[in-house]
Specification:
By secondary structure, the chain is mainly β. It has a domain of 93 residues. It is built from two helices and seven strands, in the order αβββββββα. The longest helix has 8 residues. The termini are far apart. About 11% of the residues have low confidence.
Amino acid sequence: MKAGYPQHREPSSIARAVGYGKSRLDLRGRDFNTGRVKSRIMYIEDKSTGLVGPARMGRVTFSKTGRTIYYGGKEFRSLKGAGYKANYYEVESGSCFWITGPKRDGGDALYATNVAPQIDEDVREEYWREIRGRSQGTLV
């Protein structure tokens, strides 16, 4: 090794930003450390009826490549920026959807609405505790 160079390299700024050494997901839902496909809680809004449609919070899984999302027995693929107020379509029916990660403040919809999304029972507790930062039903 040349003089003046450290023996041990610190993680790059990118590695630090994504949580080097911690279990974090990349944009395709893969764990940075293991490379395994993971599941994630996401906001899913049906846009087939208009700009504001029925919405829910649920656990989705990703395909190996990360291009396909699976939820509730349905398969969703990206519109790759070609959708109007939607970013995914359901493969079987062709219906458009807005699918995104949940926000801490609960403002997940593309357009503001006073209708709260349905929260799947299997993710309800985790959603309130990990994402919203409080126990279910308590105001901060």
